[in-house]
Amino acid sequence: MLNHAIDKVPGSAQIVGWQPVIGLEVHVQLLTKSKLFSGSATAYGADPNTQVCPIDLGFPGVLPVLNAEAIHMAVKFGLSIKANIPSYSVFSRKNYFYPDLPKGYQISQYEHPIVGPGQLDIITENGECKSVRITRAHLEEDAGKSLHEKLDNMSYIDLNRAGGPLLEIVTEPDLTSAKEAITYLQTLHTLVRYLKICDGNLQEGSFRCDANVSVRRKDQRQLGTRVEIKNLNSFRFIEKAIHYEIDRQIQILEDGGSISQETRLYDADKQKTRFLRSKEDAEDYRYFVDPDLCCVTLSNEYIDNIQKTLPELPHQKNQRFREDYGLSSYDASLLTNHPELADYFECIVEQKIPAKLAANWVMGELSASLNKAGFGIDQSPVPAARLATLLQRIADNTISNNIAKGIFEILWTTQKTVDEIIQAKVLQQVTDETAIIQLIDGVFAENPQQLTAYRKGKDKLYDFFFGQVMKASGGKVNPQQLNRLLKEKLNSNESL
User: Fold this and answer.
1) How far apart are CA 460 and CA 453, in angstroms?
2) 234 alpha carbon, distance to own chain's centre
3) pTM of this structure
4) Which of 67, 167, 208, 333 would bridge with 28, disulfide CB 3.0–4.6 Å?
5) Which backbone phi and psi does 246 adopt, to 5 degrees?
6) Per-residue pLDDT tens for 31-66?
7) How many CB atoms sit inside 10 A of residue 463's CB?
C-alpha cells in the first residue's frame, strides 16, 4: 500500500482531467423537547449523564415509545423538498458496538424511511440553479458522546445525547466541488431553521455532516471508490476537508495507487484527513426490523394537514423581497438566509420605512454591532421598533445618516428613545436654506485662496468646501441640500 503525504494548501491540486463526486449525509437534531423513544429531556448543556433514563441506557425489559412530534417534523421537511412521503415506514436495529451506544445497536430506518426521494435547489457560484437529488431522509436515535480530554489515558462517556432525535438527510452523489457542497449545506441549514425543526447550531452538534468523496477521470462513467469523512460540524472545516480529500485521492491515483473504501476524520490543526477505520457496508450492520416498534402508518389527511402548516420557504421569501420591496438579489439573499434577520427587517418596513434604507441598516450597522458583541438577532439591545423610529428620522430629514449612527450607539447601551436623544443633544438636521447659505458664505470668507483656485478649475477642492461646511455645522446640515446649494454658490460669479 502506497503512503502518500499531502503537504500543501487544501484545494491546490491540479484537477484538470479529474471529476470530484460528492454526496452528503447530514444529521439534523430535531427540536423536540424529549428524545426519540423516551421522555428524557434534550436540552443542550446539562451536566453529564443527567438527562438519561433506563430506555436510553438500554436496561433489560424497557420498551421504546415513538415521539409523535419527530414524525411530524420529518414529514414537514419531506414536504418542503417535494419528496415522496410513503404511507408507512419501519424502524430497524442497526447493530454495531461502540462505548457510547449502550444497547449495542441503534434504532434507525433502513429499507422503509419516513421520507422518500426529493430534491433541494441551490444557486451555484456562477448563478445557475442546480437541483440536488435527496435520496431519503430517515429518523434515527443519536449515540452518546465520548470525552477524551479530562485525564490522560482515560475516556469518559456522556449519554445525555443518547436517544436524541435525528433526521438523517442523504443526497445522491450530485455535487462536484467543495464549494457546491457548502452551498448545498448552507441552503439546507437555512431551510431547517425556517421550518423550525432544528436550531442549526453547528458548534453544539445540532447540524452535523458526513461527506462521501470520490474522484474519477472526466471521461469515465463509473464512480470511483468513495471515502467517508465523519462528523464535520463547521462549514469552513467541511470545505477544507473535502478539498484535502480530493487532492489526496488524485495524487494517489496519479502515482499509480488505488483508493481504499474507508472512513476518515478531519484534523483541523493539521488541516488534513486521517484514517479512522475501514468503511462498513450495509450488510455489516445486520439490519433487522425492531420487534419492539410497530410500523408507522400515515394517512393522506395527516400529510395534507402538515402541508397546510408549511411556512413561507426561503426561496419564496427571497422572491417576495425582490418583487415587493425592490431589493437586489444580493440584498434579498443576505436577509433571507437568516429567518430571524428577515423577520426583523420586515418588522421595520411594516412601519413604512423605505426598504433599501432598512436593508442597509439591518445588514450594516446592526449586523456589525451584533457580530462585535457576539449576539444573535434575538439578543439585540435595539428591537426592530426602536430602529424603525431611528430610520424614520433619517427618512423625514430630521437627522442625517451619520448622526443616526451616533444615536444608534446610544440606543445600544441605554433605554432612551430616539427623540429624547435628538432633543437632549440638539441633533436636528439643519434644513433651512438660508442658514445653510450663511454657513457656505462663512467658509468661503475663511478660505478665499481655495475659492479662487476652485473657480480657476481646481475641481478637487469641492470636497474640501463640503467638509468645511459640515464641520462648521457639527455635521447637522442635510447632505443633499448642501450638495445642491454648494454647487450653485461655487459655480456662481458673485464675489465675496
Assistant:
1) 10
2) 11
3) 0.85
4) 167
5) -60, -50
6) 999 999 999 999 999 999 999 999 999 999 999 999
7) 9
